[in-house]
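Subject — a protein and its fold
Encoding — discrete vocabulary of local shapes:
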Amino acid sequence: MSPLPEYRPKQLSVGPLEAEILNIVWELGSATVKDVHDRILSDPNRELAYTSVTTVLRRLTEKGWLACDKCGRAFFWRPLLTKQQAEVIKAHEQLQRFLAVGNPDVIAAFADSLDEATNAQIQAIANRISAARQAREEQ
């Protein structure tokens, strides 16, 4: 089970282009503006200005998703979280918002709408939670 990372970006929300560029940086591990721009333009149906890529990389840095390092005259962007860590943080935030509703009738209505596959997933989650609690009590 992946623990909730200690580091969190300043702003969790990212737009569609930010998400696309963040995924490219995750795939590459570290990237220059040219690396990202070339990757996007490898799709013949896409057009995107080089300066737009620079702007988005800077915005992701300001939001706390990326760090920028200078090596010689080149700037390299690298992720501050793994993709898996980001998914854990986002899932945790969604769960907290759902639980904040606090209305048992709303939660019950949600539970009633689940299909069998989802019920199996929820049961697996409940089993993991139970095992984690038991392990904590044994320590």
Q: What stands out?
A: The first helix runs from residue 16 to 28. The first strand starts at residue 66 and ends at 71.
